[in-house]
Amino acid sequence: MEMTVVEKQKTIQVLNPISQKGLDYLGEDYQVSEDAQGAEGILVRSYNMHQFPLPENLKAIARAGAGVNNIPIEECTSKGIPVFNTPGANANAVKELVLTTLIASSRQLFDGIEWAKTLSPNNGPIPKQVESGKKQFVGKEIRGKTLGVIGLGAIGAKVANDALELGMNVVGFDPFVSVDMAWELSRSVRRVYDIETLYQDADYITLHVPLNDKTRTMLNKDAFQFMKSDVHILNFSRGELVHNSDLKEALEMENIGKYITDFPNEDVLTMKNAIPIPHLGASSQESEENCAIMATQQLKDYIETGSVKNS
Ligand code: MLT
């Protein structure tokens, strides 16, 4: 009589909802669970894992996203657990939202919409009231203006290239010199090697660097003092890159123009001229699928073959 050996399914713990297209990639040999019991891999998006007890049999963690600051990297390194991320998989989604909000902010769209919602039929015909908004919300076109891009990785390079297409001048700063090749940055981006030049020249500044000990609170009062007083700053990277109380003061004193952030906290919500966005940079269907597929591929490859393509 022939014996069939039924292999036990491997368990992947899923800490955030992850696109089904990614989970499907795991196939029948795997079961996904919210539970840590027996988990060999973890799939995570934004869940903060710093106080999280790592499962005993854990072999690897994959983050469906670029930043890994929600993962205890040092603990993982000391336990020999690789951490994978998905650089580039959500770059188009983030780039589109950066450029959308850049134009929207420059054209005073956010303020205009807020104001339009306050119109009331009791104050006369709405169409007449709407027309008075034209005087209040005169914006600026971005064509011919200068965009400073800090960090020229997967997202920053895409933002820089498309901003050039929109007729902007682009100044780029990145401490790593090889990025032109890595991310096919346009030669028309003016690279500067001291960040103060970027601060001085830019009408708009967008942040695309990871959060680490060198970049934490890099935008602080020392940085703000170099900037134009009507500069719009866009932060689709991490909230902690900006020093909160210095930012509050700079906005209140009108030393800077606007702060558009994908990472609003209690302070930002009360700040004058801050535009809070609820962490939507990577939230497109396409990006969620791309990230989930890339993350599960890396996790599965590592568990099955020990191959490390990115960690
Ligand atoms: C990222 O680091 O790529 C984003 O934070 C991803 C996300 O929105 O989860």
Automatic annotation (TrEMBL):
<comment type="similarity">
    <text>Belongs to the D-isomer specific 2-hydroxyacid dehydrogenase family.</text>
</comment>
<comment type="function">
    <text>Catalyzes the reversible oxidation of 3-phospho-D-glycerate to 3-phosphonooxypyruvate, the first step of the phosphorylated L-serine biosynthesis pathway. Also catalyzes the reversible oxidation of 2-hydroxyglutarate to 2-oxoglutarate.</text>
</comment>
<keyword id="KW-0560">Oxidoreductase</keyword>
<comment type="pathway">
    <text>Amino-acid biosynthesis; L-serine biosynthesis; L-serine from 3-phospho-D-glycerate: step 1/3.</text>
</comment>
<dbReference type="GO" id="GO:0004617">
    <property type="term" value="F:phosphoglycerate dehydrogenase activity"/>
</dbReference>
<dbReference type="GO" id="GO:0051287">
    <property type="term" value="F:NAD binding"/>
</dbReference>
<protein>
    <recommendedName>
        <fullName>D-3-phosphoglycerate dehydrogenase</fullName>
        <ecNumber>1.1.1.399</ecNumber>
        <ecNumber>1.1.1.95</ecNumber>
    </recommendedName>
</protein>
<keyword id="KW-0520">NAD</keyword>
